[in-house]
Specification:
Layout lengths: L1 E2 L2 E5 L5 H17 L12 H9 L3 E6 L2 E9 L18 E9 L8 H15 L4 E7 L3 H9 L3 E7 L9 E8 L8
Parallel strand pairs: 5-6
Antiparallel strand pairs: 1-2, 2-3, 3-4, 4-5, 6-8, 7-8
């Protein structure tokens, strides 16, 4: 799907090298800002290969160059069971591992990803969309709130570095016809 020179498409195996280069640049950029949300355990090559195989890995192209990547799936971490989601039942599409090349952040690519995320969920008849974000990434927290996501609670991810384990969980309900509190 192409909008304003930005295309979002399923990733192919030939994209993996570029995806990993951009992820490395993002990690460095975040670490320079004191944000330690990613490590070698996640996201990594094995994760990308698994998501590629299941057709859940996407790339963002800007001006015909891969500018970032993300995952859409239905796989919630066990820690999410403790979150006070608005509804217990329903079908939810989840966003994971969104990253955009630091050299072109601020050009609306994140908004385009969220548009795609929501459009995909609506087409797939999901009841809502969910994600988590590192609690010390203030720009991301503000971004999701501005886009209409509701903070539903925090989780501790023990596989993350010490003092960098708290993640905020967000959701946006898209339809309530099948849901009840």
């Amino acid at each position: 799907m192409t909008t304003n020179g930005v295309e979002i498409r399923e990733a192919i195996s030939e994209d993996l090298e570029q995806i990993e280069k951009i992820l490395s640049a993002c990690k460095r950029d975040l670490e320079q800002k004191g944000i330690y949300q990613w490590n070698d355990q996640y996201p990594n090559t094995a994760y990308f290969l698994e998501k590629l195989e299941h057709r859940e890995l996407y790339v963002i192209e800007h001006e015909d160059e891969i500018a970032g990547s993300f995952v859409l799936d239905e796989h919630a971490m066990p820690e999410w069971e403790e979150v006070k989601w608005r509804f217990k039942q329903g079908r939810y599409l989840l966003l994971h591992a969104l990253f955009i090349n630091p050299l072109i952040q601020g050009k609306g690519l994140g908004n385009r990803v969220l548009d795609f995320f929501e459009e995909t969920a609506v087409k797939g008849q999901y009841d809502g969309i969910r994600l988590d974000v590192f609690s010390k990434n203030e720009a991301a927290l503000k971004f999701y709130t501005k886009r209409g996501f509701e903070h539903r609670g925090d989780v501790i991810l023990p596989f993350k570095p010490v003092d960098n384990q708290i993640y905020a969980c967000y959701e946006k309900i898209l339809r309530t016809s099948r849901l009840s509190s």
